[in-house]
Design goal:
Elements lengths: L1 E6 L8 H35 L15 H13 L4 H8 L2 H15 L7 H5 L9 H9 L4 H22 L2 H26 L9 H14 L4 E6 L4 E6 H19 L7 H18 L1 H6 L1 H16 L18
Antiparallel strand pairs: 1-2, 2-3
Helix pairs in contact: 1-2, 1-7, 6-8, 7-9, 8-9, 8-11, 9-10, 9-11, 10-11
Length: 320
């Protein structure tokens, strides 16, 4: 397993857009966690009252607590953008009738609004830019946001500086978010599988794809787990590896693993396409400077003891 964590380039300024996106993701995730806790508390309070007739325990299995089951089920339903539709999809016969009745009773207790329900991207609602952007910044759990932000930080700072314009970079990030969401909507329509999705991974893959266009030879510091050590891999190779492996999994297993591979693949391709469409002149303008910086970084890496004399341009930094 390999884990990229930063580009081997010196930057002229701080990547404020990258930091802003990461901060928004973190703040939104805290709001999601708080919302989930409040919803579960409300559902637990309702279920205690609704199931009080049996003391909150199944007579045939005292270890299994139906209050917890009831609260978990209702909280999950409440976190969906279209709970009535999901009740129809998840439950059958008596269970369908019972859960619909319980959820309607739960709503009469004025539960808190679910942040997840407001942010999840539903394939049928492809026109909602608010959903597209909101779902891109939202995450399912701690490991989800941790890995997305780690991969984002590995590529985004250098790419942001190379793009030059902060507004252009924001536009490209938005473009990759929309492209990955719309590609998933098209896939869902063709396969008749309309599952909500969330996460920054489509945008992350877009940044990885854009890095392959803007700085294909720039090396990314990557942690290799077996044997544990740091290696330096060109961004082009990493882009081919990640986009290619996701495409292979998508063709072989589809979406059975619960990961939105469609957003991954088309997010990565849209990132590369955005560079080809809008940044070819910019790439030409910075080509010599970027090549010098890559060479200087290689010298520093190979000469950590200062044995070789570094070129005077080693003191300069990548500029925009």
């Amino acid at each position: 397993m390999i884990l990229p964590f930063s580009a081997e380039l010196s930057l002229a300024r701080l990547p404020w857009i990258t930091f802003a996106v990461m901060l928004l993701c973190l703040l939104l995730f805290l709001a999601q966690v708080r919302s989930r806790e409040m919803t579960l508390d409300a559902a637990t309070d309702y279920c205690h009252k609704a199931l009080a007739y049996d003391g909150g325990e199944r007579q045939d299995d005292p270890v299994l607590n139906p209050v917890d089951e009831c609260a978990s089920e209702i909280a999950q339903i409440h976190a969906r953008p279209s709970p009535e539709v999901d009740i129809e999809r998840w439950y059958y016969a008596k269970a369908l009738t019972a859960m619909r009745w319980h959820y309607q009773q739960f709503l009469q207790h004025y539960p808190p609004n679910s942040v997840d329900a407001e942010l999840l991207y539903v394939p049928q609602w492809w026109w909602s830019l608010q959903r597209i952007i909101g779902s891109s910044l939202a995450h399912a759990d701690t490991s989800h946001i941790l890995f997305n932000l780690l991969f984002f930080f590995a590529f985004s700072p250098a790419v942001e500086i190379l793009v030059g314009s902060r507004w252009r970079y924001i536009a490209i990030l938005t473009f990759t978010a929309v492209a990955s969401a719309w590609s998933y909507s098209l896939w869902a329509m063709l396969n008749q599988l309309f599952m909500p999705t969330l996460g920054l991974s489509g945008v992350v893959m877009g940044v990885i794809g854009l890095s392959a266009f803007m700085m294909p030879k720039a090396r990314i510091r990557t942690f290799l787990f077996l044997p544990p050590r740091i290696i330096y891999i060109p961004s082009l190779y990493l882009a081919i590896f990640y986009i290619g492996s996701d495409l292979f999994d998508l063709i072989g297993d589809g979406m059975s693993g619960g990961v939105n591979l469609v957003a991954h693949v088309f997010g990565g391709l849209s990132g590369y396409l955005s560079g080809w469409l809008w940044l070819r002149q910019r790439k030409t303008e910075i080509a010599d400077e970027l090549a010098d910086e890559i060479e200087i970084s290689a010298v520093h890496r190979e000469d950590r003891q200062g044995v070789h004399k570094v070129h005077p341009r080693a003191q300069q930094r990548l500029v925009t």
